[in-house]
Amino acid sequence: MEFKDLDPESLEKVANMLKAMAHPIRISIVGYLEDGKKRTVTEIHKQLGIEQSTASHHLVILKDRGVLASKRDGKNTWYFLKHQNLKTILNSVGECCRE
């Protein structure tokens, strides 16, 4: 399906996903998860050098908007990109910043 063929409901979903990613910390989280590996909130907050509560807050937003998915395993919740092609969006935008 072509982007131009998306119905209004799908366009709204796309807009919400992009809005969710439009924050420096959330871009960093998506960038950290772009390798396809599942990571815990502890791994994410340590890697990004932010408070665990801050990481959790942003993970909830990304998950609620359909950017991330999660899987619970015992005490840990593992986060990962719901759609691997989201990394293409970030890489494309990153290329625009190099001009």
Question: What would you note in describing this structure?
Answer:
With about 100 residues, the chain is of the alpha+beta class. It has one domain (about 5-95): Arc Repressor Mutant, subunit A (Orthogonal Bundle). The protein has five helices and three strands, in the order ααβααββα. A three-stranded antiparallel sheet has the order 1-3-2. Helix 3 packs across helix 4.
Taking Cα atoms only, what radius of gyration do you get, to the nearest Å? 14 Å
Number of helices: 5
Which oligomerization state do the chains in this entry correspond to?
Answer: single chain
In helices, the fraction of residues equals 55-70%
Q: What is the CATH topology assignment?
A: Arc Repressor Mutant, subunit A
By CATH, the architecture is named Orthogonal Bundle
Largest sheet: 3 strands, antiparallel
Walk me through the topology.
Elements: H1 8-21, H2 24-33, E1 39-40, H3 41-48, H4 52-64, E2 68-73, E3 76-81, H5 86-97
Antiparallel strand pairs: 1-3, 2-3
Helix pairs in contact: 3-4
Tag the structure with descriptive keywords:
99 residues; alpha+beta; Arc Repressor Mutant, subunit A; 3-stranded antiparallel sheet; 5 helices; 3 strands; globular
What's the quick description here?
The chain is an alpha+beta fold. The protein contains five helices and three strands. The chain has helices spanning 8-21, 24-33, 41-48, 52-64, 86-97; strands at residues 39-40, 68-73, 76-81.
